[in-house]
Amino acid sequence: MIKTFRDLEVYKEAYGLMIIIHKEVLKLPVYERSDLTSQMRRASKSSPANIAEGWAKRRFEKEFKRHLDSAIGSANEMEVHIETAKDLNYWGKDLCEMLLTRYKQLGGKLTNLQRNWKTY
User: Is the residue at 120 inside a domain?
Assistant: First the structure.
């Protein structure tokens, strides 16, 4: 049974991805710390934060869906940042493919939640 946002599968996945990103950005070059690293940290935090905030406002359909839209947008943004890290050879292909797959799945799950939110 879902009692809080922490019980949502999408929250758990988004939060888990955020933890991975925060550990992996430490491996980026120092000169990327104020640019790519910072953007990745913010975008990776945005998805779970928006899920949590939206859940608190779920009785207001438009508000809830707006926060889920933001979470989806941040997941999409992370795909671009991960592709950048891969194409600039900052991160290995296997790590990037795993992260891309998980962020794409997260986006799909968020879309499903947005469509079927009344059943939660």
Answer: no
